[in-house]
Amino acid sequence: MFAVSDTIAPAAATTLPAATTSGTVSGGSGEPVALRWVGEQGRGEEFTHSQLLDQATCASSMLTTLGVGSGDRVAVMLPLVPESVVTTLACGRLDASRVSLPMGEPVGALRERIRESGARVLITVDGVLRDGRAYGLKTALDRALTGCPEVAAVLVVHRLGLPVRWVAGRDHWWHESLAAAQ
After folding, report:
1. What angle do CA 101, 65, 80 make, to 5 degrees?
2. Neighbouring C-beta atoms of residue 182, cutoff 10 Å
3. pLDDT one-digit tens code per residue, 103-124
4. Are 56 and 90 in contact (CB under 8 A)?
5. Residues in CB range of 18: below 8 A, 6 or more apart
6. ∠ CA(155), CA(20), CA(93), 5° rounding?
7. Which residue range or ranges hold the AMP-dependent synthetase/ligase domain (predicted)?
């Protein structure tokens, strides 16, 4: 579950690019909680405006390193986790389009959506919790990526610590790539 603060501006007046500019933080609103996340097992995280801005800046740098630029598409298959918000902000900073992929889609349909998106970079998570059970999202995605050679990079958010199959040169841990972009 997400709770987003409206301390920057009223929701109707806030646009994605405006929310990602450093002027918003330097104006004195850098400390209030902007995003509060609580996961299925009660695990929670909070981010201030300045922390979200820093994460978005690093993530946009990371995506640029992977070849994403203005007009490009980034395919995203993430549950409601903070990295999903950071990805959206990073895409906005780059003027790239975020293409959300549905979880639970049959492999063939997911493969077709990936192809149609034209995305060369895909972001996913090692696994998700549904009703207390762990599901390997990256494992399902790997099956769909068979026959999608246009996807050059897959960023994997480490959430549950599930074992994942790794394709050398294509797959990257989100947290490691983010740290390298700082």
Report:
1. 30
2. 9
3. 889 999 999 999 999 999 999 9
4. yes
5. 8, 9, 24
6. 50
7. 33-165
What's at 86, amino acid-wise? V
CA-closest candidate to residue 90, choices 10, 7, 16: 16
Write down the pTM of the prediction.
Answer: 0.82
DSSP secondary structure string, 56-114?
HHHHHHHHHHTT--TT-EEEEE--SSHHHHHHHHHHHHHTPEEEEPPTT--HHHHHHHH
Structure-token pair, residue 89: 């902000």
Q: What's the Cα-to-Cα distance from 28 to each of 15, 31, 48, rounded to whole Å?
A: 19, 8, 12
Structural domains of the chain ordered from first start: 50-180 (3.40.50.980)
Three-point CA angle 173, 134, 168, nearest 5°: 25
Output the pLDDT for position 85: 95
